[in-house]
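Take our chain:
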Amino acid sequence: EAAILEEVMRSYARQGRTPLPVARPLAMRWADWLRGQPGVTAVEVAGDIRRWCDVCERVVLLATGPNPRGVEEAFRSATAVPEIDLVVVPPAAFVVAFVQLTGSPAHWQRLRDRASARGLSLDEGGLFRDGQAQPVADEAALYGALGLQWVPPELREDRGEIEAAAAGTLPRLLELSDVRGDLHAHSDWSDGLASLEGMAEAARGRGYAYLAITDHSPALAMIRGLDELRLRRQVEAIGSLNQKLRPFRLLTGIEVDLLVDGRTDLPPEALRDLEVVIGSVHTRLRLDREAMTARFLRAAEEPSVDALGHLTGRLIGQRDPYEVDLDRVLEACRRTGTWLEINASPERLDVDDRAARKARELGVKLMLGTDAHAPVCLEDMAWGIAIARRAWLGPEDVVNCRPAETLAERDGRG
């Protein structure tokens, strides 16, 4: 498995963009290996991966021990993956190096500027005053010496986090434990690999209170998308199953296809009694910007559509995003109370953190969905959490943090 990960990493690295779900497991494997080597006293994963960037340029590992050269030689003899950078520093420099290698270059420069303004000097070797090294026990101590709250790694991009940390107003970021359920999942009624009960048991095993079953609609007939009759039958099956699953609940829903003009491929009256309706695009992906934008605007105006799914349509390393006017679509979502999905499927990670943060700033609520087609895929929620945290989202911004009974509440929707 490790060899497969390395080969996949090389393939993506040639494009300069490795998806986080590929890079992070590889980095963790090598970090664990290093921790078991003689003379290694500490190892951490840094760089893009520690910031949970959706795509990573390189894997950065930081290590320390009494014999730095020996650590480097042992690592180089064990791996031939050039996209992995190992940095070995003396123990006294480990904390500062961890901060430097984690944050973006702009974030690091802002820290250095604050140090200088306080009569300190900050570089990769440590924190100094008048040439004397200052003790830095951990990251919080370093940020504190600069008059800052500790900044979560996901925010270290120089996008306002320094100002917020100086003012003591950094947000409380979303945690996996805040999430009560997954709102985008498929079953074997369409192209999923597990039964309704199998998906429910997997979700319940993760500690969720609910799982939305959002199988495909009839436009995707080749993968057994549900027509009105089969949708009604599935709703009945979910109702019967919920009697057995209490207090856990399967929520009725569908991932309805948006036609070229933005209409749903099932009539609104077939959707209105469902608990979660996601409007997504799977066909005619290369409309021009105006036509694609109009497609989503009409969907946002449709009262039966609760959320817009994987809005930009990207497949990382395989397909570029659609041409769509994000600002206009987000404004429509704000006005109508339509949710915006953060699709946590590793190949999508859509929308990204910049779009999600813009949505938050406008007051648009975000929805997390793994787009799971098998029970194991429910674990992908971690990638969605990462995007949410990088977007400065807290529990109040994400509808999955609500009890199932209040999901029907739509700000601005009649």
The radius of gyration is 24 Å.
